[in-house]
TrEMBL record:
Keywords: Coiled coil. Residues 288-309 form the C2H2-type domain. Residues 91-118 form a coiled coil. InterPro entries: DUF3435, Znf_C2H2_type. This is C2H2 finger domain-containing protein.
């Protein structure tokens, strides 16, 4: 496409806007070879500028716990932290200082992560060459401890969906059937920190599989915290999520996510509407597993949430 046709299509008077705002900053040419009048190493340049290089599994994608903790040692963060301790909680200055501190930490984390990624990009090629010359091979990919490993049903689902295409028609049919069976098996499984959907049933949910937490147990304390004593009380935990946690084994890692607190009661209301109310159909009869009570319809759930658990929807 010529420059004139491009400017006409983009409604530009000249090529300056395209060069400033549209043209990529990565030069996909070999200027050094051009200056020396040698044959450009275009294959090497394409590999270095490709998306696959930036998406390498060995490339850092986040901060480790130690790197995240190092942000707290920044002088500005320490100054804001000291100021925050001297202010009265709930005051306007306390809120503003807390917001500024949070924004500063996020900014420092972004800058640190970008610096680590840039350093990796600059040093990884030299490191790979040195390891190859020594006969060591490439370094192992970094393992992100913050990401939980896939559970069995999710592992089977991923394997079935990413299976290689068969060479025969029967093999392709078998691949399709395996994928369908894996999806069907996964539909009834709750994976990771996702929120469980309200159960649609006309009968009361059985509590045989639920474990009764003892006093002092975090789940017991979380269960007690979702009951209000007066209409103005606003808890920050979701009673439906805690009800789902009651039916899980004690050692299930998802329990900790279920009983976690929202930052504010308003955040809990958003979670309740987005994760629970929006997924209810007209003929669904939700169940409050905390109260062991079947509800008639969606509005009944909303009234119960406000009157018993203080959750505004």
């Amino acid at each position: 496409m010529s420059e004139a046709l491009r400017n006409l299509s983009l409604d530009h008077a000249n090529s300056v806007p395209f060069q400033k705002h549209y043209l990529g900053r990565i030069v996909r040419a070999d200027p050094w070879a051009i200056v020396r009048r040698e044959k450009p190493q275009q294959a090497l340049i394409d590999q270095a500028c490709s998306i696959g290089h930036s998406m390498s599994k060995r490339r850092p994608i986040g901060l480790t716990a130690e790197q995240t903790a190092s942000v707290a040692s920044d002088p500005h963060v320490r100054r804001f932290t000291i100021q925050l301790r001297k202010l009265r909680p709930g005051s306007e200055r306390h809120k503003n200082t807390q917001r500024d501190l949070r924004s500063l930490k996020q900014k420092l984390k972004r800058e640190l992560k970008q610096k680590i990624r840039d350093d990796w990009t600059d040093e990884q090629a030299v490191d790979d060459i040195e390891r190859q010359l020594q006969g060591i091979g490439f370094a192992e990919a970094m393992v992100d401890d913050a990401i939980r490993p896939q559970r069995p049903a999710q592992t089977l689902l991923v394997k079935a969906l990413t299976a290689l295409v068969g060479n025969t028609l029967e093999g392709q049919y078998q691949r399709r059937d395996n994928a369908i069976e894996a999806i069907v098996a996964f539909c009834g499984v709750e994976e990771g920190p996702t929120v469980r959907r309200c159960i649609s049933s006309t009968t009361t949910v059985s509590r045989e599989s639920a474990h009764e937490p003892s006093e002092g147990d975090p789940l017991f304390l979380a269960t007690m915290s979702v009951f209000v004593d007066n209409p103005k009380q606003r808890p920050r935990r979701c009673f439906l999520c805690i009800g789902a946690a009651l039916s899980m084994p004690r050692d299930d890692p998802r329990v900790e996510d279920k009983i976690g607190e929202s930052y504010t009661p308003g955040d809990l209301s958003k979670h309740f509407r987005r994760r629970h109310l929006s997924k209810l159909r007209d003929n669904d009869r939700p169940v409050c597993q905390v109260c062991d009570m079947a509800l008639s319809h969606k509005m009944h759930l909303q009234k119960h949430a406000l009157a018993v658990h203080g959750t505004v929807s």
